[in-house]
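Suppose a classmate hands you a notebook page containing two proteins, each written out with its sequence and a corresponding row of structure tokens. How would you begin to make sense of it? This section walks through that situation. The first entry is reproduced here exactly as it would appear on such a page.
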Amino acid sequence: MLRVHVGVKQASRVWHAGVRSQPGPAPGTLSLSETPAYPNRHPQMKQHLAVSAIGSDRTGMVHELTRVISESGGNISESRMASLGTEFAMLLLVSGNWHSLAKLETELKRLADTSNLSIHLKRTEPRTARTDMLPYSIDVVCLDQSGIVSGLSGFFATRGIDIAEVSTRSYPAAHTGAPMFAVQMIVNVPSRIHVAHLREEFMEFCDSLNLDAILEPVKS
């Protein structure tokens, strides 16, 4: 609910049951994304690998993936996991030295071949702290309708506000059973923006769509 390819020097490729092919990822595949070469290849220097995995929901999926990460010498720095329909999706940021992540890439290929998981990997770097932005949380509740996330994201995009996280869910109202929709967001507001004016504009926007909303600073 869920806001991933391995950076290598070769062209992008997809592995399926150990055979190279050109189509996009399918169940039981490992996708390796083309990324720039990384100059830092010192064996002991910490590296980072973004991992996404999705497959038919079943007991033990989280253990299978995290066991491979642990046994390869990787460390999970961040993760998001959720059921999506009958699928289960996992997003993880894994850190480790060059050797442990190289081993992990190999072991995840094997896992994709044997567990009917679609796994996508990409070498990445940790996000640097932004001192010119302030994090704010957004909570929105409304009757379920199409276009809510599109409208909210458009409101922030047109103002140059970065969306860091989004989580949504549908549920029936407690007493009436009416279909409801809830959105939680974390947005990074540039310090140049006057927050009081932003809040006024945001509330007017939400009122126009019959959305109940709260915008407040993230509590540390």
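The notebook's second entry, a different protein, reads as follows.
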Amino acid sequence: MAKKKRTSWIVWLRRLTQTGFLLLFFYLFLQTVYHPINKAGRGVTFFFNLDPLVALNLWLASHAFVGAMLLSLVTLVVTLICGRWFCGWVCPLGAVHNFFTSVRGGRAKQKLEAGGYHPWQKAKYYALVAFLVMALLGANVVGWLDPISFFFRSLTTSIYPAINKAIVAVFTWIYDANPGVGPVRLTLVTEPIYGFLRKYFLAVEQPYYWGSLLIGTLFITVAALNFWRARFWCRYVCPLGALLGVVGKNPIVRLKKNQEKCDGCRLCLVNCQGGAAPDNLWKPSECFYCWNCKSDCPAQGISFTVGGPHEGVGAVRPSTSLRAVPSTLLRDAEQSRSVSASRTGEPPLRNDRGIEAGKKLR
């Protein structure tokens, strides 16, 4: 297998962008927490206003549309151009899943086996249809699985209260124990830090919510599933991802593969976040535009270019030429042809088994 090259600059840009939006989400979340300098304003709904699923659900359920939700139209317009870019570059919950996916172990072979497209990825589209039908009937339940709502609810009812309680417990223990050497006490350092946290981060009173254990367990489970399948939630569950997948099914910016450069190493699939099959027949509705495939391709055979609605899709089909078969398979095919020729006297012009093996590997 070809050696992996260095991570490209655009992947680092995507990571920085994801981190920035995640930090912005945390900042806006803290503005909703009651503490002495709380000054919550309109900005706290920024990510909800960007969410076209929330806007569509509100319109179907109540036939109303909040002016601030016009931002969701921006998300849809960019999706028409760049597909599910929101999932790969903006979504704060997607950034969390991306982090847990990036720290999982495993060899490249294991990631290849689990990284491709799976038919169960269609499940999120059925979930989307179910939520929209319920919205038409007046039931506003999309918040159960909408990623912005799910993440905000998990932070509010479970994660933040747990962190708040843990911080208070640790600093209270340090204050009561007052460890140190002689006149030098640890509280000389911890008390100013605790004062800062009380002013800008911690709640005035410890928040408690019914169902916090269940919600926290669900969030931890969803995060842990990334160790089994890369960005499991985004691939199989997320209804917002399904909506963006439908809107961005034929984006203008498309993946193209240069078959002359492709040697069939399939490194482009190892770190594919969405199971978009960049090694085979690219699926725009599953692609997060993370650019990992382009960055990982040692032959520089993958690019993202501007094209028509259907342009470039056929160009990513696996080649049936001998060039697309890995070198080890070619060597085995040559040996098989030699043996076949020596036994039957038939000229070693072709070996279909070698070609088929190459197709299966891809």
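A careful reader of the second entry would note: Residues 312-362 have pLDDT under 50 and may be disordered.
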